[in-house]
Design a protein that fits this description.
The chain is mainly beta. It contains one helix and five strands.
Protein backbone atom coordinates (compact mmCIF):
# COMPACT_ATOMS: atom_id res chain seq x y z
CA UNK A 1 0.00 0.00 0.00
CA UNK A 2 1.33 3.46 -0.91
CA UNK A 3 0.63 5.66 2.08
CA UNK A 4 0.88 9.39 2.55
CA UNK A 5 2.37 10.49 5.87
CA UNK A 6 0.90 13.59 7.41
CA UNK A 7 1.99 15.13 10.68
CA UNK A 8 -0.51 17.00 12.81
CA UNK A 9 -0.56 18.70 16.16
CA UNK A 10 -3.69 19.34 18.23
CA UNK A 11 -4.69 22.10 15.78
CA UNK A 12 -4.99 19.39 13.05
CA UNK A 13 -2.87 21.36 10.61
CA UNK A 14 -0.14 19.75 8.50
CA UNK A 15 3.42 20.49 9.65
CA UNK A 16 6.60 21.52 7.84
CA UNK A 17 10.14 20.21 8.23
CA UNK A 18 10.98 23.15 10.54
CA UNK A 19 7.90 22.34 12.66
CA UNK A 20 9.20 18.77 13.00
CA UNK A 21 12.63 20.05 14.04
CA UNK A 22 11.07 22.43 16.59
CA UNK A 23 8.87 19.67 18.07
CA UNK A 24 11.95 17.46 18.41
CA UNK A 25 14.00 20.18 20.14
CA UNK A 26 11.10 21.00 22.50
CA UNK A 27 10.31 17.31 23.16
CA UNK A 28 6.64 17.82 22.25
CA UNK A 29 4.27 15.02 21.21
CA UNK A 30 2.75 14.98 17.72
CA UNK A 31 0.19 12.80 15.99
CA UNK A 32 1.47 10.98 12.94
CA UNK A 33 -1.23 9.97 10.48
CA UNK A 34 -0.86 7.57 7.54
CA UNK A 35 -3.53 7.41 4.84
CA UNK A 36 -3.99 4.94 1.98
CA UNK A 37 -5.89 7.42 -0.21
CA UNK A 38 -8.73 9.92 -0.08
CA UNK A 39 -11.83 8.02 -1.25
CA UNK A 40 -14.36 5.82 0.51
CA UNK A 41 -12.56 2.82 1.98
CA UNK A 42 -9.40 4.79 2.76
CA UNK A 43 -7.64 3.38 5.80
CA UNK A 44 -6.25 5.95 8.23
CA UNK A 45 -3.77 5.00 10.94
CA UNK A 46 -2.74 7.51 13.60
CA UNK A 47 -0.62 7.48 16.72
CA UNK A 48 0.76 9.94 19.24
CA UNK A 49 4.55 10.02 18.97
CA UNK A 50 7.64 11.78 20.22
CA UNK A 51 10.54 12.44 17.84
CA UNK A 52 13.78 10.79 18.93
CA UNK A 53 15.96 12.10 16.09
CA UNK A 54 15.77 14.48 13.14
CA UNK A 55 18.35 14.61 10.35
CA UNK A 56 18.59 17.31 7.68
CA UNK A 57 20.92 16.85 4.69
CA UNK A 58 21.79 19.73 2.35
CA UNK A 59 24.59 18.91 -0.08
CA UNK A 60 25.87 21.62 -2.45
CA UNK A 61 23.61 21.92 -5.51
CA UNK A 62 21.36 19.06 -4.32
CA UNK A 63 17.85 18.93 -2.92
CA UNK A 64 17.49 19.32 0.84
CA UNK A 65 16.18 16.13 2.45
CA UNK A 66 15.23 15.23 5.98
CA UNK A 67 14.30 12.17 7.93
CA UNK A 68 13.14 11.51 11.45
CA UNK A 69 12.63 8.72 13.93
CA UNK A 70 9.72 8.73 16.35
CA UNK A 71 8.51 6.44 19.14
CA UNK A 72 4.81 5.83 19.69
CA UNK A 73 3.36 6.90 23.04
CA UNK A 74 0.56 4.35 22.96
CA UNK A 75 -1.68 2.39 20.68
CA UNK A 76 -2.14 3.00 16.94
CA UNK A 77 -5.73 3.73 15.96
CA UNK A 78 -7.30 2.71 12.64
CA UNK A 79 -10.33 4.24 10.99
CA UNK A 80 -11.89 3.63 7.55
CA UNK A 81 -13.51 6.43 5.55
CA UNK A 82 -17.12 5.53 4.75
Amino acid sequence: MNADSILYDSSSKAKTMMDIYNYWVAGNDVTIRFESGSATGTQIYSASCKFTSVEITAQAEENVTFSFTANSNGSISKTVVS
